[in-house]
Specification:
The protein is mostly helical. It has a domain of 27 residues. It contains 2 helices and no strands.
């Protein structure tokens, strides 16, 4: 019986990418938030997206 090698696939794979341009002040704010919370800069942006979505969804 052949065993599969490597890491098992995730249920929620993230394949889409989006490029973002930040000025120095925005980059500094993002780095600060990531360091203070102990999560990646990507996670900070995802959380911000979810927060903004929830505000728009529930404000109607």
């Amino acid at each position: 019986m052949d065993k599969k090698r490597g890491r098992p696939p995730k249920n929620d794979t993230k394949t889409d990418q989006y490029r973002l341009r930040l000025n120095d002040e925005e980059r500094t704010m993002l780095e600060h938030l990531a360091e203070e919370s102990g999560v990646s800069m990507s996670e900070i942006l995802i959380r911000g997206l979810r927060m903004q979505y929830n505000l728009a969804k529930f404000s109607d």
